[in-house]
Specification:
Elements (H helix, E strand, L loop, with lengths): L1 H32 L3 H7 L11 H8 L1 H34 L6 H13 L4 H11 L18 H14 L2 H9 L4 H12 L1 H17 L2 H6 L8 H22 L8 H34 L4
């Protein structure tokens, strides 16, 4: 008992230290977003700035309508893309996990092959824009790159193989259940931890993505929050550069503090959601990563 208490005490101290170290960059980011631009330029980042300012957030408030619309696009893409990804991923992993499926090894090979090789950006752009015609549509932010990933499929497949007894599947088939009925009545309900895990992975990818928008979207109404923030940052830098070339002085725009404010605004929803799914994330990764 004494050794157990000592171990718990030491583990608590170490984990507390690691939590503090992990949170410090986020705290510094928030403080920098409230720091006056000139102080940031002169003194750099510090936890105790000499002057505070709300200029970065005032600038973002001026872009309020556009930012709210982009938030809506990001939420729609994240929710819709995550749901579609979970459905397709779990459905694809099911036959790969069934021993009775004759072509499971062939299917597994094609899924694994995509982890090693891909066609590249140019062929992908031509395929999605010319053949599937998804450019400047909401599907351009959902389908390419993130909807189905080999890592998630393999994670779910291993979870099925290691945690759902074959006896349950056989019992369902004896009762006359079809494969689809077996999947949605037995396999899917029992895979809640791994579903939460891939949902978080996929949701993070969709929320943080700006490359799909950069490649496939020109319509400003379809800009996600990440793409919009990048565009705003580029506009600030362009204004400063053009003013310097024209010799008209320095434009008083909070470039550095705006960058910090944008980063904080971008990660805020993730910080809110993560604590609620962390339990399932750890359980799903540990169980699903075991080789079947």
């Amino acid at each position: 008992m004494t050794e157990s208490k000592s171990f718990n005490r030491v583990a608590t101290i170490i984990l507390t230290f690691l939590v503090i170290v992990t949170l410090l960059p986020i705290v510094l980011l928030v403080i920098a977003s409230f720091t006056k631009e000139q102080v940031l330029v002169q003194n750099g980042y510090t936890f105790f700035p000499k002057a505070l300012s709300l200029d970065a957030y005032y600038y973002m408030v001026k872009q309020g309508a556009v930012i709210v619309r982009s938030y809506g696009v990001s939420f729609l893409v994240t929710v819709l893309g995550t749901v579609m990804s979970v459905v397709v991923t779990t459905t694809l992993a099911y036959p790969m996990a069934r021993k009775s499926f004759r072509y499971k090894n062939v299917l597994s090979f094609f899924v694994f092959f995509t982890m090693l090789f891909n066609g590249g950006i140019v062929p992908s752009y031509i395929m999605w824009s010319r053949f599937f015609h998804i450019k400047n549509t909401i599907w351009a932010l959902i389908i390419p790159n993130y909807m189905v990933t080999a890592f998630n499929v393999i994670l779910v497949k291993n979870f099925y193989q290691n945690n759902v007894p074959d006896a349950l599947v056989e019992a369902a088939q004896i009762d006359g259940a079809s494969e689809l009925k077996t999947f949605y009545s037995i396999m899917f309900p029992l895979s809640r931890p791994v579903v939460a895990t891939i949902s978080l992975f996929t949701g993070l990818c969709y929320w943080n993505d700006w490359t799909n928008g950069l490649y496939y979207v020109d319509n400003e109404k379809l800009f996600s929050i990440q793409l919009l923030l990048m565009k705003i940052m580029n506009n600030i830098q362009a204004l400063k550069a053009n003013t310097a070339l024209m010799g008209t002085g320095t434009v008083e725009l909070p470039g550095t503090s705006v960058r910090m404010a944008m980063a904080f605004v971008g990660i805020l929803p993730i910080l809110i959601v993560y604590p609620f799914v962390q339990k399932y994330l750890v359980e799903g990764v540990v169980i699903g990563a075991v080789k079947g």
